[in-house]
Amino acid sequence: MQHDKVLILDFGSQYTQLIGRRVRELNIYSEIHPFNKIPSNINEFKAVILSGSPYSVRGEEALHPDLSLIRGQKPLLAVCYGAQYLAHFSGGEVAPSNTREYGRANLAYIKGDEIFFSKIEEGTQVWMSHSDTIKHLPDKAVLMASTNDVKNAAYRIDGESTYAIQFHPEVYHTKDGKQLLENFLVKIAGLNQDWTPQSFVEETVEALQLKLGKDKVVLGLSGGVDSTVAAVLLNKAIGKNLYCIFVNNGLLRKNEFENVLNQYEGMGLNVKGVDATNRFLEALKGIMDPEEKRKAIGNAFIEVFDDEAHKIEDVDWLAQGTIYPDVIESVSATGGPSATIKSHHNVGGLPDVMKLNIVEPLKALFKDEVRRVGATLGIDPELLGRHPFPGPGLGIRILGDITAEKVRILQEVDAIFINGLKHWGLYDKVWQAGAMLLPVESVGVMGDERTYEKCVALRAVESTDGMTADWVNLPYEFLQRTSNDIINKVKGVNRVVYDISSKPPATIEWE
Ligand code: XMP
User: Fold this and answer.
1) What residues are labeled active site?
2) Residue 453: Cβ within 10 Å count
């Protein structure tokens, strides 16, 4: 790749990925690596950013990498813990802070650096989140800015392109954070801003053609954004040698299989729809435990997919829609600085019996970049804006055992809810929404009759990545209409409740 690259060394902050995304928003390519694994190709990176951390520089498990290959060797921006560690590493002193250093603060310039703070006015709002403070700056440090509570809020090292800030430029509440990152990366480090969705598409298509030649590739489509964008990219690169398989596990949303299959065909994809509803329902019969259900669904998927893939002669590659957050090696925030690889729900579940080579065209992209690339490829915005939907589908939204009748009921309820959200212009304001079929029956009256029927729970959450989430304050009038519609139209349901739990402690799904 010919693009300039930024190395982000991760010390375990919850915001590290956000730094990566902000840099990418400037059309500059960034990679995140654990603090203790400075990549051997460090020379290929034109600048380095040190992230924040939940750890203390003074702690027993302190994260103390050797920065001598970096400091003074290439442009360096140290953020929060990074700024403290840079001070500590360079002979300064870090101590516990005795004032509150969380939340909003305003920068006062001491010797505001003209380039570093270019286009940023004194007094700008920044976001602090730390409990240690830099008591003494290291040798050759020049104090650039302070806040009311934090004396050493920004400093640089004289004679080097080394900068350190105690606040977080990557979070939304630091008003000029993106400008500051741009000042550092473009004006100081001299990086080119040429990493764009368009350039990604062109280079990836070329690289895929080179890698795959005339080989055949099989890919499982799910109806979701990632697998769709991966398919369209591969289709652009190798055309009909991409064989897509779209499996109906019987646990999709109402009419989803037919609609999405049509859409895929309309996009010119070489796709085969396989309706395996009965096979999945059979495999799920009588299973109550959520993890057992997930396993049964996963295994049935592998069998069906494997059967279908075997029907394609001489297939060499398996394509997956893996994205960057699935492969970033993360520094664990609990249990010490051990490095673990995050495993994604769906990664690794595909047929190893086939022993195929794996191709993952999206593995350098964050989710928002996948959408931008999808838009560049001309994929329908409605498809790109779809809520996430779990692999096991309605199977983990029907609490307890699964039957065809329960799936039918939940599909009807879900369709009324989701179509209602769209109709009321609420769909795009919600990160994910769906309905749960509860394993209780409750008493109701319909006409003069007492009924004893099912209860459904509606769930709508806002979130950025599904790791934390809050319930959405949907208008009462919308909830009222939706509840009426569901009870009047869906036979077998006489009660609707709305889930007002946040994650944590509740999860988004009920199973
Ligand atoms: P939870 O329920 O853990 O969900 O708060 C977080 C996000 O993950 C999705 N999810 C799954 N996705 N297979 C998937 O592909 C699963 O088994 C699974 N379980 C939860 C969930 O829909 C939400 O977006």
Assistant:
1) 80, 168, 170
2) 17
